[in-house]
């Protein structure tokens, strides 16, 4: 296992292709000026010891030095061993609605992006809890199994979009059923499902699924994202709205927040409902809910003893700099005597 200490310095790697383009352009410009001055063969005879290969080699060495220094600044770390640690917390699964209606922009920037922001902020205030992620539309899809790695969870969260689930619609019961499988039935760890949606349910049986989840000891907090006034579903091309989704009668579809369905699910599991349009209110509500849930102790494995590796790359950079210092742009005499390229007549 490895981690990058200062990822921001990775952007400096863009300097390498820029320098390569400048170097190639410089070679082209020199060759063009030489042709204007005279024949290339005659110019080579005027400077017989000048090596084009070595000037290119020196440039490659400098590029490698730059790359090694940048990687040293990033400071990659390697976990040398795993250890089992005991933590106290609960298991939390986030079920995020990724149906087309979540593209509605009645909340900024749209319902789906707002949902992802809410989940990310909730993760930020967790400590010691295990989390998992489920995406759902017409069916449910497991995005991330139960883990304690919050950074990985955020990475998977940001990659979620409306194409991650092939079947469209909104099936709240499928989301609840799949989320329930994330929890270990034989363990007494407290279980919490945080379901984020606009509440438009195109299936039946959400209440029944919630009742079954309640029997298994699963509590559900539902977060409604959207407005009761609602709005159309934009169809975009290149980031620009070209039209809006229409039904079979060619009428623009207006999607609205259905709080009734979400409140019913929460009630069946002795959970709660909160409107997600105010992130601050959601965070306060979830924080209070977590404080009232009994924490249990569980074991988890994690990498430890992360050792910095920057010194190896600094050593490589120093070695290459010394090599570049000793590397002259003149042709090497003993290589020239070998006549490898049949330069002698």
Properties at a glance:
345 residues, three-stranded antiparallel beta sheet, alpha/beta, 13 strands, single chain, six-stranded mixed beta sheet, 41% helix
Quaternary organization: single chain
Radius of gyration, in Å, reads: 30 Å
Give the termini distance in whole angstroms: 58 Å
Strand runs, count: 13
Order of helices and strands: EHHHEEHEEHHEHEEEEEHEHEHH
What is the helix fraction of residues, given as a range?
A: 40-55%
Please give the count of helices.
11
Label the overall shape: elongated
Major beta sheet summary: 6 strands, mixed
Mean pLDDT over all positions: 83
Strand proportion: 15-25%
Across the major sheet, the strand order is 5-4-3-6-7-12
Uncertain runs: 340-345
- Structural class call reads alpha/beta
In short, what is this structure?
The protein contains eleven helices and 13 strands.
Topology diagram in text:
Layout: E1 2-4, H1 15-37, H2 40-46, H3 52-74, E2 76-89, E3 91-97, H4 111-124, E4 130-136, E5 140-147, H5 150-158, H6 172-180, E6 191-197, H7 206-215, E7 218-224, E8 231-232, E9 234-237, E10 240-244, E11 254-255, H8 259-268, E12 272-275, H9 279-291, E13 296-308, H10 310-326, H11 333-338
Parallel strand pairs: 3-4, 3-6, 6-7, 7-12
Antiparallel strand pairs: 1-2, 2-13, 4-5, 8-11, 9-10
Explain what this protein looks like in three dimensions:
Helix content is 41%, strand content 24%. Helix 3 runs antiparallel to helix 10. It is of the alpha/beta class. The strands form four sheets. It has a six-stranded mixed β-sheet, with helices on both faces. It has a three-stranded antiparallel β-sheet with strand order 1-2-13. The chain has a two-stranded antiparallel ribbon with strand order 8-11. The protein is elongated. A hairpin with a 2-residue loop joins strand 9 and strand 10 (240-244). Mean pLDDT is 83; it is low at 340-345. The chain starts with a strand and ends in a 7-residue tail after the last helix.
């Amino acid at each position: 296992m490895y981690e990058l200490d200062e990822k921001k310095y990775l952007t400096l790697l863009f300097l390498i292709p820029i320098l390569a383009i400048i170097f190639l352009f410089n070679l082209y410009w020199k060759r063009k000026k030489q042709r204007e001055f005279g024949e290339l063969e005659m110019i080579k005879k005027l400077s017989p010891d000048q090596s084009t290969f070595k000037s290119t080699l020196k440039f490659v060495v400098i590029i490698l030095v730059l790359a090694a220094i940048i990687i040293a600044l990033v400071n990659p770390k390697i976990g040398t061993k795993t250890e089992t640690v005991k933590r106290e917390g609960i298991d939390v699964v986030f079920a995020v609605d990724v149906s087309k209606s979540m593209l509605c922009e009645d909340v900024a920037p749209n319902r789906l992006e707002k949902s992802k922001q809410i989940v990310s902020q909730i993760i930020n205030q967790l400590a010691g809890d295990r989390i998992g992620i489920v995406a759902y539309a017409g069916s449910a899809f497991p995005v991330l199994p139960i883990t304690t790695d919050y950074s990985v969870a955020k990475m998977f969260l940001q990659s979620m979009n409306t194409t991650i689930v092939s079947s469209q619609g909104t099936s709240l019961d499928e989301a609840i059923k799949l989320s329930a499988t994330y929890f270990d039935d034989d363990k007494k760890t407290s279980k919490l499902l945080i379901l984020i949606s606009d509440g438009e349910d195109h299936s039946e049986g959400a209440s029944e699924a919630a009742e079954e989840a309640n029997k298994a000891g699963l509590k559900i907090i539902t977060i409604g994202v959207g407005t009761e006034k609602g709005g159309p579903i934009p169809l975009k091309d290149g980031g620009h709205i070209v039209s809006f989704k229409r039904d079979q009668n060619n009428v623009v579809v207006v999607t609205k927040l259905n709080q009734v369905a979400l409140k019913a699910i929460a009630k069946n599991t002795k959970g709660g409902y909160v409107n997600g349009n105010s992130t601050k209110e959601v965070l306060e509500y979830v924080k209070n809910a977590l404080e009232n849930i009994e924490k249990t102790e569980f074991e988890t494995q994690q990498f430890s003893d992360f050792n910095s590796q920057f010194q190896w790359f600094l050593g490589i950079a120093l070695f290459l700099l010394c090599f570049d210092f000793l590397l002259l742009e003149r042709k090497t005499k003993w290589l020239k005597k070998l006549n490898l390229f049949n330069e002698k007549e």
